[in-house]
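Annex B. Sample input.
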Amino acid sequence: MIISGIAIPIDKLNHNGWGLHNREIQSAVDTLKKSDIRLCEKLDHGCDFNPQSHHSVGKPIDVYLDEAKNAIIAKVSITNTRVQDLIKQGKIKAWSVFGTGHQNDDGWVSDYTNKSLTLVADPAWDDARFASRESTDNHEGLSDGDYKKFTAKYDIKEEAMPDKEEDKFTSELEKKFAAKDTEFAAKFDEITAKFDQVIAAKDTEITDLKKEVSELKASTVRLPKEEPVAPTITDITTDLTSVKASLISEKDVDKLVAAKLNEY
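Annex B, continued. Sample output.
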């Protein structure tokens, strides 16, 4: 089985607070090509500190820089048949590098040397994940003859663990998978419960708004209609009196004119 994907994003700090600048690319690529491909019982880096032979589950085929993705890509052959099954089942989808170097205060590592590429449950970089390139004939599209040449070139030998070791190893893995499933179920239930609470609160708000609208409509219907009021005789008389009071008689006009002429 051949798997490939991003192993190390460049110029990006991971969840553990470290990363590599582009000046470390060549060293990372060169040492990744020589690194072991491992799988620890707890899907972490535990076995990287004290690796055993059964932790080795494959070997690198090619490692290179993808400039478009600004990341180091690893192409790996998984030789352990049990691990192949786990990958086919979708139980393992990510990996994480393990190496040495000098980590500066800002998190960037210099003098980096890679030691292993380890299959994990939670990668240090979110995009450090791989995809299986296996085809239905298990030879990645190669004929039987070409596949034999391919495996001979890279010294690839598929192998299975001894029964005793595999039982112990897979037992630990299954516990890890079960724990992950339980954790996921608990988080899913928690999110669902919160979502239900939000929906219930919104339903209450909608019900209250509908009630307010209904009450508003009802109060509008009960409002009396205002009818126009016809003027009365008293109102008309009052208006005429006001108009008369504001008028000046012809005699008063003559007096005003005479008074103005006398001023001159």
